[in-house]
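Shipment paperwork, digital attachment
Item: protein structure file
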Amino acid sequence: MDSKVHFKFVKIVNAYGREVSTHINHPTGGDQDMVAANNDWTAFQAKQMGAFYLSPTAEFRRYEDNSGIVHGHQGTVYDLGFSPFYRNLLASCGEDGKVKLWVIPEGGLNNRETEADVVLDEKAKKMHILQWHGIADNTIASAALDNIVRVWDIEKEKTTMTFDNIEQQINCMRWGIDGKTITTISKGGTMIINDVRSNDGKPLKCVTHTGPRVNRCVNADVNHIITCGYNKQAAREMALWDKRNLDKEVWKGPLGQGIGVMHLYFDPELRLLTAVGRGETEASCWEFEPGTAKPLYQSCVNQFKENTRASHMMPKSCVDP
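Attachment content:
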């Protein structure tokens, strides 16, 4: 048997989703995952304004009461993320323009907790995206509706650099795999790659998808980025880009039917892309083979009983051996 074919089969054998809760709020204009999880804790937006739920990850149940709810922001909570270095450190951001850090004690946060351990505030307008740096400890990036990307040192509680070269609303933001770049996609499909080692350097820039709906991106490796969006005919598509030459995409192809915002998750070890559409009942898995005529091809489609309201890719350490 061809070992390459066998390896492709093994990669997708356990690619499936699991429902955690049916009580997740969808704020207007919120296009982020709206849920975050690690080995110990799961956090997701609550129906109450300015609040999110926090619960042990292994506790799968319906959240009909106020147990585990945290009232952390004034206005809508837009994004949540756990530190890749500390399982009990959670970041949240919201309509009040603040990034808040929560150190979770062993028994969890107190019900209706309102005081965060750290508040990062530069009077921004609606902080709606955040992402932890995957290599540098105590570093997190945020994006606000003022179209500015801020990089924070959470230990010093201040920004270390800002990028204000983005003209329209930021829909997606990702750290590079090597931690040297920040990629953003804004309204209109413009992708900008800023080098955090040179705040004054010239960014890389291109237009990904020309349709009117939200575009998303994910890093496949140090040099390649996968994007998804819509073309002018409102057909959903995805593309592969090489950072070293953004004049034209390496490859572009269809991404199934649907009108929901797609959320992309990539496993660099298995070279496996998972695409989940909000409001849809399926997740598709795509295998990445760089250097081939068709570097992304669909391996499987997983069906769910209910529409997807939020999604998140948990760390591999959560998976049973």
